[in-house]
Write a structure and sequence with these properties.
Helix content: 40-55%
Number of strands: 10
CATH class of the largest domain: Mainly Alpha
CATH architecture of the largest domain: Orthogonal Bundle
Shape: globular
Strand content: 5-15%
């Protein structure tokens, strides 16, 4: 997906696409995008609203000039998205009508009530109708996830990967009971009370006990592989649901390990833990010693995750063109909770990456896999009965920051958590750099003697 300065000359020069849609991201204004399809070229403002990716259509390029669209995106639409306002849900005000871009805003805003026809009003009401939280079904939440996931893949990876992902999305939908056709046994988790499996079940009815029972029954009647595939779809569903405020789910109903030894659970699943269990690394020196026994790529990746607080997905997807070792920072475009942010690097992390560059060279990705592409995943760290997941270094960074009483907002900014009113300030400054250095120093003090 190209990143170019979107100008009128570029729009005129780009050919229409025979297959799919090509998305162009503006280099100077993050969130200002151009879509080139089979018969049209369209400008958009993109950002996050209530933890959901939102794409606001500004206008087609044969009607709207690029410089006008850029001004509307920069001065009106993107600031509204950062403030938590959906531009499409705002009424068309007298100020909008008097602005230099009244025609563009009139196509985005809702009309005032006196300007609405009955048909327009009914469409808006249907679009704004909210389901009661306790009546949301698994199928309804999955459809929300599908919409979000498709938009995210298209935005981040382009139409080709979006087409490839479509088959996998439909397979997961079928596992949950939303497929069009099934064999004589019906959906995977079908019962007499719920013939469509989990699809029509209220999402609040999916408890750990139900997961445990379903896992045992499905393993016995359909085989362990089918049970694994079903619960991988459940895992995806609840990972999305937990992150969305409009869905009444605060924790994933992890499969209960009845025997207490993990035997028989899907790969990567753990026994049920207490809701308030601390997910930090229980023995940091032991963790560091075990990591030091790994090969250089996963070892460096895990240490960078620990010393920066970055998400595992951010670490393995990191490219060298995002890293500025001289400035001591890493830059990200569209992320899980922000449209652009920078991550500060401590002196320890800079040294770690410099050693890695000398050892492996600078290819496209910082942490490469066996074939030269990106590292697909970070490994678990084990020692005897101890087992630490790739998510725990991030939790350990946050816990260490709290222990040494650093500024809470600065810690949240480093981790990329959404903070109201500061979305345009996710950049490395002196205070953030000092905070990250202090946390890294505290972590390295804990592993003293293991290095």
């Amino acid at each position: 997906m190209p990143h170019l300065k979107i100008t009128q000359a570029l729009v005129d020069r780009l050919p229409y696409q025979d297959e799919g849609t090509m998305w162009v991201h503006d280099l100077d204004l993050p969130g200002f995008n151009l879509a080139v399809g089979k018969a049209s070229k369209t400008l958009y403002a993109c950002g996050e609203h209530k933890r959901k990716f939102v794409r606001v259509k500004i206008g087609r390029c044969d009607v709207t000039k690029v410089n006008e669209a850029r001004a509307v995106a920069q001065n009106v639409l993107l600031p509204e998205l950062r403030r938590g306002v959906d531009p499409r849900a705002r009424p068309l005000s007298d100020e909008d009508r008097a602005s230099d871009h009244a025609n563009i805003l009139a196509g985005i805003r809702e009309a005032r009530p006196e300007d609405l026809t009955d048909g327009m009003a009914n469409r808006i009401l249907r679009g704004k109708a909210k389901s009661r939280a306790d009546e949301l079904t698994v199928g309804q939440v999955w459809e929300k996830y599908e919409e979000f996931h498709r938009a995210s893949i298209l935005e981040e990876h382009g139409p080709e990967k979006a087409r490839r992902a479509e088959t996998h999305i439909m397979q997961q939908r079928q596992y949950l009971g939303g497929g069009e056709k099934y064999g004589k046994d019906g959906p995977y988790a079908s019962t007499l009370d719920w013939p469509k499996g989990w699809w029509d079940r209220p999402i609040t009815s999916i408890t750990p006990e139900l997961c445990s029972t379903t896992w045992r029954n499905m393993s016995r009647t359909r085989g362990r592989r089918s049970a694994q595939m079903f619960f991988l779809s459940v895992h995806v569903l609840f990972k999305y649901a937990v992150a969305k405020k409009e869905v009444p789910v605060t924790a994933s109903p992890v499969v209960i390990d009845v025997a207490g030894d993990g035997i028989g659970l899907p790969k990567g699943w753990q026994t049920l833990k207490a809701q308030n269990a601390v997910e930090r690394i229980s023995d940091l020196r032991a963790w560091w010693q075990q990591v030091d026994q790994m090969t250089v790529i996963p070892k460096s990746a895990l240490k960078v995750a620990l010393l920066t607080g970055m998400r595992p997905s951010e670490v393995i997807g990191l490219k060298w063109d995002q890293v500025d070792l001289d400035a001591g920072k890493v830059s990200f475009g569209m992320t899980k909770t922000t449209d652009y942010r920078e991550v500060a690097l401590s002196s320890w992390t800079v040294a770690q990456l410099e050693r890695l560059a000398r050892y492996a060279g600078k290819r496209e990705y910082v942490f490469t896999g066996p074939t030269g592409g990106r590292l697909l995943s970070l490994p678990n760290v084990t020692r005897g009965k101890d087992r630490w997941t790739p998510k725990q270094p991030r939790k350990e960074w946050a816990a260490t920051a709290a222990e040494i009483n650093v500024n809470g907002d600065l810690a949240e900014l480093q981790m990329g958590h959404a903070l109201s009113g500061v979305k345009s300030h996710y950049i490395v400054n002196a205070d953030l750099r000092a905070t990250v250095q202090a946390v890294a120093d505290a972590i390295m003090e804990k592993v003293k003697g293991a290095v």
